Amino acid sequence: VPSSPGPDSSGPDSSGPDLTELRTAVGDDHVLTDPDLRAGSERDWTGRFSGPSIAIVRPATVEQVAQVLRWCHEHDVAVVPQGGNTGLVGGGVPGGLGEADGRPTIVLSLRRLDSIGPVDGAAGQVTVGAGVVLARLQEAARTAGWAFAVDLSARGSATVGGMVATNAGGLHVVRWGSMRAQVVGVEAVLASGEVIRHLGGLLKDNTGYDLTGLLVGSEGTLAVVTAARLRLVPPIGPTVTALVACTSVADAVALAAEARRSLPGVVAIEAVWPGTLGFTARAFDLVVPVDLEDGGVALLAEVDETAGTVERLAAWSGDRPVAVATDSRGRAGLWALRERIADAIALSGIPHKLDVTLPFDRIAPFAAAVVASLPGLDVHLFGHLGDGNLHVNVLGAPPHDETVDDCVLRLVVELGGSISAEHGIGRAKRAWLPLCRSPAELETFRAIKAALDPRSILNPGVLLD
Ligand SMILES: Cc1cc2nc3c(=O)[nH]c(=O)nc-3n(C[C@H](O)[C@H](O)[C@H](O)COP(=O)(O)OP(=O)(O)OC[C@H]3O[C@@H](n4cnc5c(N)ncnc54)[C@H](O)[C@@H]3O)c2cc1C
Question: If we measure between CA atoms, which residue out of 412, 315, 411, 434 comes closest to residue 421?
Answer without folding.
Answer: 412
